[in-house]
Description:
Layout (H helix, E strand, L loop, with lengths): L7 E2 L5 H14 L3 E3 L7 H11 L7 E6 L9 H12 L4 E6 L10 H13 L3 E7 L3 H11 L6 E5 L7 H10 L2 E5 L11 H10 L3 H11 L3 E2 L6 H8 L8 H8 L18
Parallel strand pairs: 1-2, 2-3, 3-4, 4-5, 5-6, 6-7, 7-8
Helix pairs in contact: 1-2, 1-9, 2-3, 4-5, 7-8
Amino acid sequence: MNMPQLGLGTFRLQGQQAIDSVRNGLELGYRHIDTAQIYGNEAEVGQALHDAGVARGEVFVTTKVWTEHLAADRLADSLKESLRKLRVEQVDLALIHWPSPGGAVPLRESMQALLAAREAGLAAAIGVSNFPVALVREAIAAVGAANIATNQVELHPYLQNRELLRFAGDAGIHVTAYMPLAYGKVLDDPIIGAVARRHGATAAQVSLAWLLAKGIAVIPSSTRRENLAGNLQAAGLALSAQDCAAIDALDRGERLVSPDFAPQWD
């Protein structure tokens, strides 16, 4: 899976806002776009991809299958609908967005249906999102670790998910961080701000660079072109071991996304 480690998230972006963000991102040089069925913006992302004129093979596109479509007789059809909206023949990565609430659809069924969708050419790679260690174990038992390209989870300086990262590393499963800026909370953090000043960088760039240094992909989102441009520059920021240790110390288990149907977290 040749996924750019720094991508553009589209969570909460609607209508023209979604089109503009993706268009700006592609113009600035982003080549990894992340969306989801439940975001309600796949068609807008597709329009921006189409209008940008960037060759399809140059842009890595991820979408996520919503919980209502996790049954074996629904998953592939829902993914085909996503492809239609995105105006692509295949997504680069398809993820199970959240585990089936209350285990209503057996995880093995969903994982095997997702694998079958990949084998049918609907996705080049597959993976999971919002899976704690116990469910990643189940997913591995269903399809094998080699068939799980990534686990996309909330990850930022205040929620560092160390147990999950250790497990994923041992299993050879890549991790993608959503909400890497903690809804913007990192922007006002004095520790991160001090690191940023030392490097002549922004707090956002420091937080993203800290995650990238751990081998974690990041998918920040923004509606402002200058922020999109700034975030992209994080890939060139080299933090010292001391900088990283200072940010490591900020972990407080502060989870910002935990709907009532969420799994039992680690």
